[in-house]
Amino acid sequence: MRILTIAPFYRFFIKDFTEALSKHVDKIDVLVHHNYLSELAPYMPFSYFRHVEKFSRKNLVDLTGLPPNVRVHVVSTVYFTPDGRNTKLGDKLAKLFDRYIKRHKIEFDLIHAHFTWPSGYAGVKVAREYGVPSVITIHENRDWFLKEYKSRNEKIYWAWRNADALIRVNKVDIPLLREFNRNVFHVPNGFNPRRLPFVDKGMARNHLGIPKDTKVLFGLGNLIERKGFHYLIDAMSLVAKERRDVVCFIGGSGPLRNTLQNQINKLGLQEHVKLLGFVPDDQLALWMNAADLFVLPSLSEGNPTVMFEALGVGLPFVGTAVGGVPEIITSEDYGLLCPPADPECLAEKILIALEKEWDREKIRKYAEQFTWENIARQIIRVCSEVTR
């Protein structure tokens, strides 16, 4: 089987999944769209362009360790309206990809697109042009999904109706998608165990300069409203009243960093909540292994990769019951859940979790089913079904 993957980037979970999938197919070509304007972002004085800068060519793809049967193509164009609001971008990319495929003589038996817009829409259009099946994996968070489900957005609806199969990363949305397409499959996200190898907890703490007697919470995500870190900070103001030995470290960058730091300062939590900024992979392995709990207070998710990464090192999960999270944290042996936007409940669960004796080896064993190697096998079954 020869797969053409269409995705907004080739990094993080898409890279890890593709490289796992490459072991089961003849070849994979990956098309990533790129906006030339992102290259100008570093020279623009406005704060908005710090966000745009993340989509520059060097930040879109990570070619380290690329398997010999995977080729990544960055296909460049120019547009001024951001992807999510650009109603013409899907058709623009479909034409751009068609020309690129012909020029470079790319051959494929199936198109697998990640995210509905614009990649999924463009993928289905291109697949119809070449007479091959198309599959869309819908990774988007549940707020986005429900909004689009109700929106009567004909381009989104068209993509869902005309794909040969849809894959949703949580189970809860499967019945809604079957209103558009009878070939709907549930395949969760996963994690790459090689990305976060086991590190002795004491050694990890020594590297990070964290005392052994400190109780460490670790959270990771973009510093945006949807990730709910402002609720975690509120929860920490309650936790700190009960225990003075707890420190919450939050990794990630984003537009709310200053707002969150001001909240920390206002609540006098400088010793109990610390913003780390972007955490590279070598440091991420240390943080995951040094922590006592992983905390994710999101308001909406599809099925967060960081949850699987935490479980993969045996780290108990405390977070909100959103998207596919309660489909994974099915037992209190793996973590504790609370409603979103409820700092009182989140604080209570953190305090309970800090007192609980966790079997970290049991958590790690449970997580093995979600390695990208196992997820790739599930995707291959879907692809084989639609190419019969």
UniProtKB/TrEMBL annotation:
SUPFAM superfamilies: UDP-Glycosyltransferase/glycogen phosphorylase. It is an enzyme of class 2 (transferase). The keyword Transferase applies. GO terms for molecular function: glycosyltransferase activity. Keywords: Glycosyltransferase, Transferase. It comes from the Archaea. Residues 205-369 form the Glycosyl transferase family domain. InterPro entries: Glyco_trans_1, Glyco_trans_4-like_N. Its EC number is 2.4.-.-. Residues 71-194 form the Glycosyltransferase subfamily 4-like N-terminal domain. Pfam families: Glyco_transf_4, Glycos_transf_1. This is Glycosyltransferase.
